[in-house]
Description:
Layout: H1 3-9, E1 15-17, H2 23-32, E2 36-41, H3 47-58, H4 69-76, E3 87-92, H5 94-100, H6 102-121, E4 126-130
Parallel strand pairs: 1-4, 2-3, 3-4
Helix pairs in contact: 1-2, 4-6, 5-6
Amino acid sequence: MSALNKILSDGKLSGVYRPTQGPNEIARTAKAVKLSVVKLDLRKVRGKKEFLARLAKALRCPPYFGMNWDALADCMRDLSWLNDNGWVVMLLNGQEFAVKNQDDFMTAIDVLQTAAEYWRIHRKPFWILLYGDKDWDPGLPELPKSLP
Protein backbone atom coordinates (compact mmCIF):
# COMPACT_ATOMS: atom_id res chain seq x y z
CA MET A 1 0.00 0.00 0.00
CA SER A 2 1.46 3.38 -1.02
CA ALA A 3 1.94 6.28 1.40
CA LEU A 4 -0.94 8.16 -0.25
CA ASN A 5 -3.25 5.13 0.13
CA LYS A 6 -2.42 5.00 3.84
CA ILE A 7 -2.91 8.73 4.31
CA LEU A 8 -6.29 8.89 2.56
CA SER A 9 -7.45 5.81 4.51
CA ASP A 10 -6.56 7.40 7.85
CA GLY A 11 -9.57 9.22 9.27
CA LYS A 12 -7.42 10.68 12.05
CA LEU A 13 -5.86 12.98 9.44
CA SER A 14 -9.11 14.16 7.84
CA GLY A 15 -9.03 17.83 7.00
CA VAL A 16 -8.89 20.66 4.51
CA TYR A 17 -5.61 20.67 2.63
CA ARG A 18 -3.70 21.99 -0.33
CA PRO A 19 -2.41 18.87 -2.13
CA THR A 20 0.83 18.59 -4.05
CA GLN A 21 -0.51 15.56 -5.93
CA GLY A 22 -2.64 16.09 -9.02
CA PRO A 23 -6.39 15.51 -8.96
CA ASN A 24 -6.18 12.37 -11.11
CA GLU A 25 -3.65 10.73 -8.79
CA ILE A 26 -5.79 11.62 -5.77
CA ALA A 27 -8.95 10.29 -7.45
CA ARG A 28 -7.29 6.98 -8.44
CA THR A 29 -5.89 6.48 -4.96
CA ALA A 30 -9.15 7.43 -3.23
CA LYS A 31 -11.11 4.98 -5.37
CA ALA A 32 -8.54 2.27 -4.67
CA VAL A 33 -9.17 2.64 -0.94
CA LYS A 34 -12.94 2.78 -1.55
CA LEU A 35 -13.56 6.46 -0.83
CA SER A 36 -16.18 8.51 -2.64
CA VAL A 37 -14.65 11.15 -4.93
CA VAL A 38 -16.35 14.44 -5.73
CA LYS A 39 -14.84 17.06 -8.03
CA LEU A 40 -16.16 20.59 -8.14
CA ASP A 41 -14.69 23.20 -10.49
CA LEU A 42 -14.91 26.64 -8.88
CA ARG A 43 -13.53 28.57 -11.87
CA LYS A 44 -16.79 30.32 -12.80
CA VAL A 45 -18.59 30.13 -9.46
CA ARG A 46 -19.81 33.54 -8.35
CA GLY A 47 -20.61 33.91 -4.70
CA LYS A 48 -22.19 31.98 -1.90
CA LYS A 49 -25.42 31.01 -3.62
CA GLU A 50 -23.73 29.43 -6.63
CA PHE A 51 -21.05 27.77 -4.47
CA LEU A 52 -23.66 26.19 -2.22
CA ALA A 53 -25.83 25.09 -5.16
CA ARG A 54 -22.95 23.44 -6.99
CA LEU A 55 -21.55 21.75 -3.89
CA ALA A 56 -25.01 20.51 -2.88
CA LYS A 57 -25.50 19.07 -6.37
CA ALA A 58 -22.04 17.46 -6.42
CA LEU A 59 -22.65 15.87 -3.01
CA ARG A 60 -26.25 14.94 -3.90
CA CYS A 61 -27.49 16.73 -0.76
CA PRO A 62 -31.11 15.96 0.17
CA PRO A 63 -33.86 18.21 -1.21
CA TYR A 64 -34.30 19.83 2.19
CA PHE A 65 -30.80 21.36 1.96
CA GLY A 66 -31.33 25.00 3.02
CA MET A 67 -28.81 26.76 0.74
CA ASN A 68 -27.05 28.54 3.61
CA TRP A 69 -23.87 28.03 5.61
CA ASP A 70 -25.66 26.38 8.55
CA ALA A 71 -27.30 23.89 6.21
CA LEU A 72 -23.93 23.14 4.64
CA ALA A 73 -22.43 22.56 8.08
CA ASP A 74 -25.26 20.18 8.97
CA CYS A 75 -25.03 18.24 5.72
CA MET A 76 -21.25 17.95 5.82
CA ARG A 77 -21.49 16.35 9.26
CA ASP A 78 -24.12 13.89 8.07
CA LEU A 79 -23.51 12.59 4.53
CA SER A 80 -25.51 9.45 5.44
CA TRP A 81 -27.23 9.50 2.04
CA LEU A 82 -23.85 8.82 0.43
CA ASN A 83 -23.24 5.76 2.65
CA ASP A 84 -19.53 5.57 1.86
CA ASN A 85 -16.35 4.58 3.69
CA GLY A 86 -15.18 8.19 3.44
CA TRP A 87 -15.03 11.13 1.07
CA VAL A 88 -12.58 13.14 -0.98
CA VAL A 89 -13.94 16.45 -2.22
CA MET A 90 -11.66 18.19 -4.70
CA LEU A 91 -12.30 21.88 -5.18
CA LEU A 92 -10.60 22.71 -8.46
CA ASN A 93 -9.58 26.22 -9.56
CA GLY A 94 -10.20 27.55 -6.08
CA GLN A 95 -7.95 30.57 -6.52
CA GLU A 96 -10.33 32.45 -8.81
CA PHE A 97 -13.26 31.89 -6.45
CA ALA A 98 -11.16 32.90 -3.43
CA VAL A 99 -9.94 36.13 -5.02
CA LYS A 100 -13.35 37.24 -6.28
CA ASN A 101 -15.35 36.07 -3.22
CA GLN A 102 -13.01 36.46 -0.26
CA ASP A 103 -15.64 36.47 2.50
CA ASP A 104 -17.57 33.54 1.03
CA PHE A 105 -14.33 31.64 0.48
CA MET A 106 -13.23 32.12 4.09
CA THR A 107 -16.65 31.11 5.42
CA ALA A 108 -16.71 28.02 3.21
CA ILE A 109 -13.25 26.99 4.45
CA ASP A 110 -14.35 27.48 8.07
CA VAL A 111 -17.47 25.34 7.55
CA LEU A 112 -15.46 22.63 5.78
CA GLN A 113 -12.76 22.62 8.47
CA THR A 114 -15.41 22.20 11.17
CA ALA A 115 -16.87 19.26 9.25
CA ALA A 116 -13.39 17.74 8.89
CA GLU A 117 -12.87 18.02 12.66
CA TYR A 118 -16.15 16.17 13.19
CA TRP A 119 -15.09 13.31 10.90
CA ARG A 120 -11.58 13.24 12.38
CA ILE A 121 -13.12 12.66 15.85
CA HIS A 122 -15.17 9.82 14.31
CA ARG A 123 -12.06 8.51 12.53
CA LYS A 124 -13.72 8.51 9.13
CA PRO A 125 -11.77 9.75 6.09
CA PHE A 126 -13.01 13.16 4.99
CA TRP A 127 -10.80 15.21 2.74
CA ILE A 128 -11.37 18.62 1.25
CA LEU A 129 -8.56 19.29 -1.22
CA LEU A 130 -8.25 22.77 -2.65
CA TYR A 131 -6.49 23.24 -5.96
CA GLY A 132 -5.32 26.50 -7.53
CA ASP A 133 -2.29 27.83 -9.32
CA LYS A 134 0.96 26.20 -8.19
CA ASP A 135 2.23 29.41 -6.61
CA TRP A 136 -1.05 30.16 -4.80
CA ASP A 137 -1.04 29.73 -1.05
CA PRO A 138 -4.59 29.73 0.34
CA GLY A 139 -3.23 29.47 3.89
CA LEU A 140 -4.01 25.76 4.20
CA PRO A 141 -1.59 23.03 5.22
CA GLU A 142 -0.25 20.72 2.52
CA LEU A 143 -1.72 17.24 2.36
CA PRO A 144 0.69 15.04 4.34
CA LYS A 145 3.15 13.03 2.26
CA SER A 146 3.62 10.40 4.93
CA LEU A 147 2.01 9.23 8.13
CA PRO A 148 3.22 10.88 11.33
